[in-house]
Amino acid sequence: MLRTLPHGASELADYFNYGSALNEREILGAVVAELLIKGEQVNHHTLIARLSQLLADETDAVKVDVCRCVLERVIQKTPGES
User: Fold this and answer.
1) How far apart are CA 79 and CA 65, in angstroms?
2) Nearest to residue 66, comparing CAs of 20, 33, 32?
3) pTM: predicted TM-score of the whole model, two decimal places
4) Helical ranges in the chain per DSSP H
C-alpha cells in the first residue's frame, strides 16, 4: 500500500537521504524499522519518543551524540513546533 508522507516528513526524509552522516541515516532507519516491525505508526511523535528513549539508554558517547543530532532534526521538522 502506498502512503503519502505527512507535512514535514518529506523534508525530513530528504535531509537523511542527502548530505547527512551515514550514522544518522542508519539510526533513523533502525528506529523506523523497529516501529514498523512492532506495528506502530511512524510519525513525529513516535520517532521523538523512541529517539528520546535511545538517548536515555545509550552509554556510548559517540552514539549519544549521533542520536541527539537525529532527534534535533526530527524536532526541527515537527509541524507546528517551529
Assistant:
1) 24
2) 20
3) 0.69
4) 9-17, 22-37, 44-57, 61-76
| Residues 5-15 pLDDT 10s | 455 556 666 65
Place of cell 526530527: 74
* Rounded Cα–Cα distance for residues 39 and 14 (Å): 24
38-76: buried (b, 16+ CB within 10 Å) or exposed (e) per residue? eeeebebebbeebbeebeeeeeeeeeeebbeebbebbee
Cell of 60: 556510548
Q: Which three cell numbers stand for residue 9?
A: 516528513
Query: Which CB contacts under 8 angstroms, 24+ apart, belong to 25-30?
Result: 27/51, 27/54, 27/63, 27/66, 27/67, 27/70, 28/70, 28/74
